[in-house]
Specification:
Layout (H helix, E strand, L loop, with lengths): L14 H5 L9 E5 L2 E7 L11 E6 L5 E3 L7 H23 L3 H31 L4 H70 L14 H22 L4
Antiparallel strand pairs: 1-2, 2-3, 3-4
Length: 245
């Protein structure tokens, strides 16, 4: 029998278990053969990990448990799930302390792999529960895994809602700033329109009275030009100020 390096060499498991394991741990699942039960789970994942670290929990027909990590016995699965519990508590604190979209995005990037791992953990433990329906410990393991899966799902929902709120709030702030800029531009256009005619007339005729009228009823032509320019500016101002029909 060619033994797989994934399982401890001291384990006297059925050959079928080793034959069904490849070089990598693969997905989380449960194997049953000759009354033996092998539960393959993943350690709490990190988003940057390419491969998941596998943890193997072996139950013999006499109800004795062995684990590739931690100490043997039925408590090994509890310790495994407690790691996820502690990780979710840390994420819960990070969600409460997050103040920016980057903080929530970082939490979501880490929570995604954890949530998927817990979903598959629940499925693997449900398979074990169906394989050995009389083992009450497996019921507790499955229920605990489902509780953690639900907690992770709620944390993701909370983080997404908070992130959407921040994005919506920033969009509202940007809309208000854009409205203020638009109003300022409109006022500037009105101001330019008001003085545009007089500026044009001043450019054409000048304002130093050397336009042919400097000796004709001085300075009445100048004031007539100013009044005409302001009047035309006021007319243009009213035209631009009107809203769309």
């Amino acid at each position: 029998m060619q033994e797989s390096s994934l399982l401890p060499g001291a384990w006297n498991v059925p050959a079928e278990f080793r034959d069904r394991l490849g070089k990598h741990v693969g997905r989380q699942r449960t194997m049953v053969a000759e009354g033996h039960l092998l539960i393959i789970l993943h350690a709490p994942p990190d988003p940057e990990d390419t491969y998941r670290k596998g943890r193997f929990f072996w139950r013999e027909p006499d109800s004795s448990w062995h684990a590739s990590d931690f100490k043997g016995g039925p408590d090994a699965l509890h310790v495994h799930l407690d790691e996820y519990q502690q990780l979710l508590e840390d994420f819960d604190e990070k969600v409460d302390e997050a103040t920016s979209s980057l903080d929530y995005l970082e939490v979501l990037n880490h929570l995604g792999p954890v949530y998927r791992a817990l979903c598959h953990t629940t499925q693997a433990l449900q398979m074990a529960r169906e394989a050995i329906p009389k083992d009450k410990l497996l019921i507790d393991y499955r229920d605990n895994a489902y509780r953690l899966e639900r907690t992770a799902e709620l944390l993701i929902a909370d983080a997404k809602n908070a992130l959407e709120y921040i994005v919506a709030k920033q969009a509202e702030e940007q809309a208000r700033v854009s409205a203020r800029i638009e109003l300022s531009s409109h006022r500037l256009n009105l101001l330019i329109a008001y003085f545009f005619p007089i500026a044009t007339l001043s450019t054409i005729f000048g304002s130093n009275f050397r336009h042919g009228y400097e000796r004709y009823l001085t300075p009445y032509p100048f004031w007539i030009m100013v009044a005409t320019g302001l009047g035309l500016g006021f007319v243009i101002h009213l035209f631009l100020k009107r809203g769309p029909r």
